[in-house]
Amino acid sequence: MYSLTLPWEALGISAVWLVLMAFMVALPCSQVGSFLILRRMSLVGDAISHSVLPGIVIAFLFTGDLSSPWLIIGAGIAGLLVTIFIEMIHVGTRVKSDAATGIAFTALFALGVLLMQLYGGSKVDLDPDCVLYGQLDHILEYEAVSIAGLDVPRPLVTMTAVAFFTLTTMFVFYRVLVLSTFDAGLAASYGYKPVMVHYGMMFVLSIVVVAAFQSVGAILVIALLILPGAFAYMCTHKLPVMLSLAAGHALLSAVLGLYIYAWFDCNLAGAVVLAGAALLVLAWLFGPVDGQLWKWKRSLGEVEKPDDLIL
Amino acid sequence: MMHLLNMEIFQLAQIFQLATTLASGLAELMPSSGTGKAILASILLGASCGMLGCFVVVRRMALMGDAVSHAVLPGVVAGLVWSVDRNPFVIFTLASISGILGAGVVQMLMKTTRLKSDAALGIVLAVFFAAGVVWQSKEKSATAGVLHFLYGNASSIDQNDLLMMLVTSVLIAVVVWLLLRPLLVVSFDAAYAMSLGYPVKFLNALFYTLLSFSVVVALQAVGVILVSAMLITPAATAYLLTDRFKPMLLWSMTFGILSGLAGCWVSMSYNKMSTGSVIALAATAFFALFYFVAPRHGILVKYIRVAKRKSRTHRENLLKEIYSILERKEFARESVSLKSLSERRRQTLEATQKDALILQKYALADYSEENRSLQLSEKGWRRAMEIVRNHRLWELYLTRQADYAEDHVHDDAEKIEHVLGAEIVEMLERDLDFPEVDPHGKPIPRPQSEVVFVEPKKRASQLVNPNKN
Amino acid sequence: MSKVDHPPALEIHDLSVTYHKKPVLYGVDVEIPQGSLVGVIGPNGAGKSTLIKSVMGVIPSSGGWVKVFGKPLKDSLHRVGYVPQRESVDWDFPVTVMDVALMGTYGKLGLFRRPGKAERKIASEALEKVGMLSYANRQIGNLSGGQQQRVFLARALAQDSDLYFMDEPFVGVDAATEAAIVTLLKDMRERNKTVLVVHHDLQSARDYFDRLILLNMRVVAEGPTPEVFTPELLHKTYGGRLTILSEIADRTAKMS
């Protein structure tokens, strides 16, 4: 039983902040990511998460503060730049969009790394390590904000605000988002403007990615974007259920990630991702829709195809 | 076909054996100076990534390259942890296995679930990478140099690494050389390859293996994260330059090698910079350069082409208008006044004068300053007639053969008249049975008949119907 | 009846479309009176689906204009309904039959309001009409081809538009569904709806539609079925593309 209580005993209240932080990072990612999967744009998330780096570095070099809002603006500009570059390359030449994406985001990422190495050396907290691993566990070192008598780490407050903003936006535009994803033709005939939806989505995605960037680094963000949605996609045929399951996956991987972190004393962001991956494997084996077990049983004729029974 | 392929595979095994026996001897031939090593490493990684990159780009699987390159990280960490003396053979093997495994999981996810390729790639990329990160964070002391593998560091490459890179690159080159045709067919049209009896599954597996190998060759110089730059950018640059695959391979390897050399050189001169980033940026610089100046697909060239066409269209429109002014006067006069042309074009006299000088510059007309009038040259005449003929032929074609309404065809003909080539004009005339008048009853000129410069009246009748002469 | 009171349901003037630098439609002129069932027929690659998509503004046109009920498309979008081609739908998408039918009511809801009881009632009625109400909770991928088509028809019914575009609704459906669709179309005409159907079967086209548009890159003929359904015009439509026209259109498209 000791191992089950270990993180809470070893870390005390910090454990709560860490889980909450991991969840607040993973939650907005899971919701935006679910739509990325449905729109078959998962790799745009990959591209954006790499390309925001130079924007963040430049903004950081000017402000010297990792929690400055300028970082979000810088990253937003970099995110916009990469979409423009991709368009320029694949509209202007015969290079296809996948290669155009690859060219654009590796170039921006390389630029970001170089800037960081050349000018960021003396400054703390922004180095190649952080880009890779994130600093989820560093949040405790920040000054705390006092809310209702509790000392809440400041990054957690920021992240909660981002999560709230993302969820509200998606709730308000839910129908528009669903329809333009499912049937752009009909959406256009309602005057929804699929292009606007696309750019709006990129905008929210950029914000989420930047906010998550400090916690989990440029590369693990992709996991937080895609894993929850993929997990839920394997489990259900209904969109609202899928979104709730994705949120549940975010929460579970945050908690399980903390356990892995406490048990093995490893990188926390990576642990959260691995916990998420373990859940995905479970869904792959036992998920009601794509679970291999049901497929196997069905092929043996043991169970009926559970048409409307599914979640 | 099967038989041939088996032969090729047999040859392959022989060559591989040969390579391993040669390897020990080669070790002594490896350059010992840091610069020498960096140069050789750049050549190897540029060549192998450039080669495989061409397939990646034409198969539209740039993001597969990215996923595989991230997926090698757990293998690298395993190698660093398990091999105490950091045997490059162990590290490279484990990294390759990890990469191939990643590619396999992508295939499996796509086959067994409803997830589409993008999500499958994203999952593999992120989860494999996370596994590497977590493991590495546990074994910090054993994996001290892992950042070299992540961001690339040419100066960390030693002789053993180099040997490993050499053997792998040679292997890649030999396999690609032997199996170029089948690999290409599979990339282009898998169904057709299947119908030819090619072992498509095997060839695809082989391709992913080679891809992992090339990632591994590039690993130490470029680093896990930016390997995909080497797989995509040089090949995409080559794609701008040529339409055929073999030259594309050569160009891609050239750009790969040049970017590699640039990256190694810069990063070794400025210690702070990681080699991978410089290599990626160098490759991007080549791409940017050819994005603008590539002979056929470059933006600049396209821009110039459009500008040239615009100015030609402008001249042709001027000629056409001079023609129609003359036509209205039944070709009674040789020249048109600047004033009548400016009225017809609804523009100022100054602008018209500029136009007149343009025509003079291209020897299409003579402009007389004192009379303020323009007279078409022989070349100008011919071109004017051609344009008017094109316009009227096209109008006729649209109304007669394509069932368009008569009031509709003028605007279209305004555009089309400039692009009809001699071949199509011939086809049009044949299809329309050599017409003499357009839908509006105006005569269609015949520039191809030998028009001699005679008196205006006579010429007019010749223009309209040369046979009456 | 004056033209002002009853403007044509659809008026297309000189519409040209290039798609991925390939010309698909060239100078299309069409005028369709209200309350007619119109079949769009022509060979593969003639631009039938493109015509519908560009009229709806999904694919940008390179020239010409479209008027719906006498107004620019932008102002009459709410009067237009759409049934997509079956292949273009992502059948794995996590939506149920009811969700899809409800989408038909979104147009009148605006951007933010959520569908309520009234909308559910409309959607249920539409599903009932096509005989799909008992499947309301199924995910759309778990239906037969004919059932899938009916769901999208129900959605179109729920839209309650005045002008419908249907892209190949008869492809891959069973005979029962085909008959049901035809009945539905006739019923819609009774209520003075105008329906434009992309269709590929010549034989049934004559029986199903009041008017036909014969399309092959350009409009070969357009008018009441008995006038247009002549061997000569059909031959012209299906007798291959006009090589010169497509060649030239190709060239101009690549240059722009």
CATH architecture of the largest domain in chain B: Orthogonal Bundle
Query: How many structural domains of chain B?
Result: 3
Number of strands of chain B: 3
Strand ordering within the main sheet of chain B? 1-3-2
Q: Using only CA atoms, what is the Rg of chain C? A: 18 Å
How many E-type strands of chain C? 10
Give the helix proportion of chain C (percent range).
Answer: 25-40%
Could you say how many structural domains of chain C there are in total?
1
Q: Helix tally of chain C?
A: 11
> What is the CATH class designation of the largest domain in chain B?
Mainly Alpha
Name of the CATH superfamily of chain C: P-loop containing nucleotide triphosphate hydrolases
Structural class of chain B: mainly alpha
- Secondary-structure element series of chain C: EEEHEEHEHHHHEHEHEEHHH
Uncertain runs of chain C are none
Most extensive chain interface and residues per partner: A-B, 62 and 62 residues
Distance between the termini of chain C: 44 Å
Query: Judging from the principal axes of the Cα atoms, what is the shape of chain B?
Result: elongated
**Helix tally of chain B?**
21
Kindly report the CATH topology of the largest domain in chain B. ABC transporter involved in vitamin B12 uptake, BtuC
- H-E order of chain B: HHHHHHHHHHHHHHHEHHEEHHHH
Determine the mean pLDDT of chain B.
Answer: 84
Can you put this structure into words, describing what you see?
The complex is a heterotrimer of chains A (311), B (469) and C (256). Helix content of chain A is 77%, strand content 3%. Chain A has 13 helices and 2 strands. In chain A, a hairpin with a 2-residue loop joins strand 1 and strand 2 (150-153). The model of chain A is unreliable at 307-311 (pLDDT under 50). By secondary structure, chain B is an all-alpha fold. Chain B folds into 3 domains: 2-293, ABC transporter involved in vitamin B12 uptake, BtuC, CATH 1.10.3470; 315-378, Arc Repressor Mutant, subunit A (Orthogonal Bundle), CATH 1.10.10; 380-468, Winged helix-like DNA-binding domain superfamily/Winged helix DNA-binding domain (Arc Repressor Mutant, subunit A). Chain B has 21 helices and 3 strands. Chain B is elongated, with a radius of gyration of 33 Å. Chain C has a single domain (10-255), classed as 3-Layer(aba) Sandwich (Rossmann fold). In chain C, the strands form 2 sheets. Chain C has a 6-stranded mixed beta sheet, with helices on both faces. A 4-stranded antiparallel beta sheet of chain C has the order 2-1-4-5. The model of chain C has no long low-confidence stretch (mean pLDDT 85). Chain A binds chain C through residues 38, 172-173, 175-176, 178-179, 181-186, 188-192, 233, 236-239, 241-242, 305, 307-308, 310, and chain C through 53, 56-58, 74, 77-78, 80-82, 84, 88-90, 93-96, 99, 103, 106-107, 109, 111-112, 114-115, 137-139, 141-142, 155. Chain C: Belongs to the ABC transporter superfamily. Chain C: InterPro entries: AAA+_ATPase, ABC_transporter-like_ATP-bd, ABC_transporter-like_CS, Metal_Ion_Import_ABC, P-loop_NTPase. Chain C: Keywords: ATP-binding, Nucleotide-binding, Transport.
